[in-house]
Amino acid sequence: MRRVPIQTDIVLLGAGHAHAEVLRQFAMRPVPGVRLTLIAREAMTPYSGMLPGLLRGEHGYDEAHIDCVRLAAAAGARLILAEADGLDLTARQVRIAGRPGVGWDLLSIDVGGEPVMGVGGTAVKPIGRFLARLDEIEARLAPERRIAVVGGGAAGVELAIALARRWGSRAQVVLVNADATPLATAPETVRRAVAAGLRDAGVEVFSGARAEGFADGVLRLMDGGCVAVDEVLWATGVVAAPFLAASGLACDDAGCVVVEATLQSRSHRGVFAAGDCAAVLGAVRPKAGVWAVRAGAPLAENLRRAAMGRALRAWSPQRHALAILGLGGGRAVAWRGRLAIAGGWVAAWKRRIDRRWMAMYQSLRAMEMDEDDARCGGCGAKIGAEGLHAALAGLAVPRADIPIGLAEADDAAVTLPPPGMAVVQSVDHFRAFLDDPYVFGRIAATHALSDLHAMGAAPWTAMAVATVPFMRGAKMQADLAAMMQGAGEVLRAEGCALIGGHSGEGAELALGFAVTGLAVPDAIWRKGGLVAGDALILTKRLGTGIILAAAMRGLARAEWVQAATASMLASNGPAAAILRAHGVRACTDVTGFGIGGHLGEMLRASGCAAELGDLPALPGALELAASGVASTMAPENIAALDVTTERGLELLADPQTSGGLLAGVRDGTACLTALRAAGIEAAVIGRVVAGPAGRITVAG
Length: 700
What we know:
This protein is of the alpha/beta class. It has 20 helices and 35 strands. Helices cover 32% and strands 25% of the residues. It is globular. About 3% of the residues have low confidence.
């Protein structure tokens, strides 16, 4: 099968409800030549409809959140976990602090909104940040504390009731409402039900005065009054993030992107928006999740049409939507227009609606990817000089020991090793396993340098070999630049100079490095040298192979992928320095052969055996292994092991990317204490014993 080159980049900025539906639609019906990229602030995006139930304890965290890692995998979309801080509409690029921007051909914005706040207190949106802040508030709860919720709309009322039922006697919840009564525009039946719900939950209500600001334990009101409280939560009307209007997009008075009935920006044809951050011309609707949900399908259709050069379709959002407000205690009230109903069955109805909606996004599986068009091979597959130079701009650092390097663009680099130092060299190369080229570049460089750390050498120089899938225009250059920027940051932090390399087209993104280090000749660490009685220390947890294999199939939870990524990004340099200070006898880094294979090499080189205890695993690794998930390299690794038991084989044989150092030291207790004091998740996994060379016994 021939893969269609990437021709159109659709960037989804924000993981709001509308974008969840866009990803689902593209997962079911992808468009050849179109690449989706989701830029999400958090890996787990909350569903606003389940927030009150989550706060009341009626829903679990996973039940009330959409896993962006799985959803992106299902749609074949790149996932970049970062927060945008601006838009360059001329260059068509999303700006992200501290890393390369992300270019688009079509941009869709669904970043939600922020409450209209006075001075002080905590915003309820974005919800992810509010939930994190809530943990801090709860740590200080006491019966005499008073927590104010500002906002008498549906969001404020539901939040106040949910928190009051969550906390009970641990705190007093106060609802501050500018109107004469909460939900002043709702039908009388709704207002009565809400008043009863607030009363039953023990919420104290202040109505008829708008809140102005909070400081020193006092919530000031615009009529001159005040309310004594310890914390303030703002659940008021919504405004958009300031960077949208600052970018030059046409926005309304609340900073929301003004879009036509097609959800396309009124001012910029390649930009779309939906949800709380958008304002549809001629269709004034409340900022509520129901309209964001309904906008998802028409937004997906028009993004598809825009990518294919077809006419867009107008969307007419309904004037009145069904609203359901949970009152706790198994009760809820629902209304549409002037019709309203309340009762326990309404709450059950809401739970069914919410769970059915979430199931659409939690049950998707990874899509099959098309293959690439045939392209020239050999030197005809090299990336053009102009694009290559632009991608490498700023990575050259002049040094006296590198008279000819990246800056000179000569045929080869020239280096001057310090007298008396041994030159230690290694090479690593692999294809991308993450969608974010910047993060992948950082991991690839970290992984390559680990071989030097395992030998006790200081990184000195590196040469890169990069492969980028064919894409038209500046897309190849952008991916290469992002990948090399990430790698360059890691190399510079370790004092390693990038002095050259090679780039070319290929079927998929890949990166590798030939690295050179310097070491005192008689201080180089080897795999051999272990002595019976030595403690075996591992400086990182295991399971990256299992988790990455699961992620490719859409089976890994977001927090598992995040933990694995953080581990792969961690340099082994600090651990190597501590190991040296504690008399390391032998060392290696744990990579493709798994800890069992690399330990077996050390044991055979030392003429010893080993007894192991429990192996430290990354979150999710054992759970995934128990369900049958394994790296494709695991069976070959298992076949090569000399073990006396099958216990723990899933971790022993799991190939690691940018894994930890495995070392034998005399005093494992002191070394482990020093490693953990430095924030390194190290563990003593066993000890060296006399026995058949290479034999591994797993206790228990």
